[in-house]
Specification:
- The protein is of the alpha+beta class and 351 residues long.
- It contains twelve helices and 15 strands.
- The protein has a three-stranded antiparallel sheet, with helices on one face.
- The longest helix has 58 residues.
- The model has no long low-confidence stretch (mean pLDDT 87).
C-alpha cells in the first residue's frame, strides 16, 4: 500500500509549510502562517537572525553620541525652564527685600537686611508695620511658589514625553533598517508581511527588552544562558516543514489522540507549568496534510477519543490542537488556543 501511495504521491504538487507565530494582540491565540514548501525553515532562520541583529543594533543606537547629545539637551532644557521659574520669583521677591532660599527640604522665603538674610532677633526688632508688610509679601510669594512647585511635575512629564518620543524615533529607525529587507523578501506573501509589520510595531513598543538588563549577563539572555522568554516571542515555530517533492505519505504506528492532532507541551518555571507557541508540537494529521495518512484500524479504535477526534477533523476540514483535559473541561487553568490549521488529506485504515 505504501509503495502504491508513494508512486502516486511523487506526481502531486508539494503542499505548503505551516508555522505558528506569536499573536502580539492575543498571546493565548497563536497565529498560523502558510508558506510555500521549503520556505518555513528560511523564515525561522531569518527571524532568529533578526533577533540577533536587534540585540546588537538597538543598544548601539542608544549608546551613540548623537542620541546621548539629544537626551542631554532635553534634560538641560527642562532644568533651564524649572530654574527660570524660580529665578523670576526670586527677582520679584528681591524687590520686596525678600530672598528665595533653597534648603535641603525645599524652598523658603526669608526677609533681607542689607542684602543678607535677617536673623530672628533683627526681625523681631523691626517696627510692627514693617513686620506686617513682610508677612503679607511673604504670604503672597508663597502662593506663587506653590504654583511653581505644582508646575514642576508638568514640566517633568513634558520632558519624559520628549524622551519617549526620542526613544521611539531611534527604535523605529533602527528596527526599520533590519525589517525592511525581510519585507522586500516576503512581499509576495501578504500573510508574512502582515506578521513582520506586527513584529516591527511590537519591537518598537518594547525596544527596552533588547537593552542590557543586568551586569555580567549577555544581552538578551537569562542568567542560565537561554534566550529570555520575552525575546522568544519573535521566534517562528515551524510545525510542518516539507522535504523533497510530492505529497507526504505518513504511517502512524501509535494513533493516540495527541499523536493524531498534536499537543502543547509545558515547561516548569519556578514551580509553575508554563507554555508558549514555541511548545506546540505537530500530530500525524499535520504531517500528512495534503497527502495520505495510513492508520491501523484496531489500534485507532482502541485509543481513547482518537476515533472521535479523527472524525471531527475530517468533518471540519481543520485541526484544532487542544488537550484532552481542555476538551473534557477537566482543567480551568489558562492555556493556549492555537488558531486551527485547515487540512485536506486522505486517511486510509488498514488491518
Amino acid at each position: 500500500l505504501k509503495q502504491v501511495l508513494e508512486a502516486k504521491a511523487s506526481q502531486r504538487e508539494t503542499p505548503p509549510d505551516w508555522c505558528y507565530v506569536n499573536n502580539f494582540e492575543q498571546v493565548h491565540r497563536p497565529l498560523t502562517l502558510e508558506l510555500p514548501a521549503g520556505m518555513g525553515k528560511g523564515l525561522r532562520a531569518a527571524m532568529a537572525q533578526l533577533v540577533e541583529d536587534l540585540r546588537i543594533g538597538l543598544p548601539t543606537a542608544f549608546e551613540s553620541q548623537e542620541y546621548r547629545g539629544q537626551l542631554t539637551h532635553i534634560n538641560e532644557q527642562i532644568e533651564e525652564q524649572q530654574e527660570a521659574l524660580f529665578i523670576a520669583l526670586n527677582e520679584k521677591a528681591l524687590k520686596h527685600d525678600i530672598s528665595l532660599v533653597r534648603t535641603p527640604s525645599g524652598y523658603t522665603l526669608m526677609p533681607l537686611k542689607d542684602e543678607k538674610p535677617m536673623d530672628t532677633e533683627a526681625y523681631q526688632g523691626l517696627p510692627e508695620e514693617r513686620r506686617n508688610q513682610f508677612e503679607a509679601d511673604i504670604e503672597e510669594l508663597k502662593g506663587e511658589l506653590k504654583e511653581i512647585i505644582l508646575q514642576l511635575p508638568v514640566l517633568r512629564k513634558t520632558g519624559m514625553e520628549k524622551v519617549r518620543s526620542l526613544n521611539q524615533g531611534y527604535a523605529e529607525s533602527t528596527v526599520g533598517q533590519f525589517i525592511r529587507p525581510l519585507l522586500e523578501e516576503y512581499e509576495a506573501l501578504p500573510q508574512v508581511v502582515q506578521y513582520l509589520q506586527s513584529v516591527q510595531t511590537d519591537v518598537v513598543r518594547n525596544f527596552d527588552l533588547f537593552l542590557p538588563q543586568g551586569e555580567n549577563i549577555p544581552l538578551g539572555q537569562t542568567d542560565s544562558g537561554a534566550l529570555r522568554p520575552e525575546l522568544q516571542a519573535y521566534q517562528v515555530n515551524c510545525l510542518v516543514e516539507q522535504e523533497g517533492s510530492g505529497v507526504p505519505v505518513i504511517y502512524e504506528d501509535n494513533p493516540s489522540y495527541n499523536n493524531l492532532i498534536g499537543r502543547i507541551e509545558h515547561v516548569s518555571e519556578y514551580g509553575s507549568l508554563m507554555t508558549n507557541f514555541t511548545l506546540i508540537k505537530p500530530g500525524a494529521l499535520h504531517r500528512a496534510n495534503g497527502g495520505y495518512l495510513i492508520l491501523d484500524a484496531e489500534r485507532l479504535l482502541s485509543k481513547p477519543f482518537a476515533w472521535e477526534a479523527l472524525k471531527r477533523v475530517l468533518r471540519a476540514g481543520e485541526v484544532r490542537i487542544e488537550s484532552l483535559e481542555q476538551m473534557l473541561s477537566l482543567v480551568t487553568t489558562i492555556s493556549l488556543e492555537p488558531v486551527a490549521i485547515p487540512v485536506r488529506l486522505k486517511v486510509i485504515l488498514v488491518g
